[in-house]
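Title: Prediction job returns without error message
Component: structure pipeline
Severity: low
Priority: P3
Assignee: unassigned

Description:
Job completed but the reporter wants confirmation the result is attached to the right record. Sequence as submitted:
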Amino acid sequence: MASVKQVQVTFDCAEPERVARFWCEVLGYVVPTPPEGFATWDDFDRSLPPERQGAAFACGDPAGVGPRLFFQRVPEGKVVKNRVHLCVRVGTGLVGDERLATLEAECARLVALGAVHERTMYADGHDESCIVMQDIEGNEFCLD
């Protein structure tokens, strides 16, 4: 039997800290404390060679349950649809109008943070409603 491993989700992006802080707001995640010897992450960043400054940032679940999110700068922009995406589970256990209202309220909160509402997929008798969105750099995710 294989042992359970921890999972980190890594995002390629242009502005790692900006995207990380967006996801902190979405998920209630926090930025970890800076490495020993540094008062802030900015202090740590300035200690790096110029080509590594701003190249990465991370955040995590303050309860230690959810996966760590890691954001790394890449030179190319996003070109096609994600092959893997996050589903932000805000409507778990809800159905019908109550579920849709909860999803729409969270969608409005995230749009105010810079997310984009791509489309709403309404309940069809088989699947419940969900909302497809994009983060501040165009990465797709769902409110489920």
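Comment from assignee: result matches the submitted record. Residues 86-143 form one domain.
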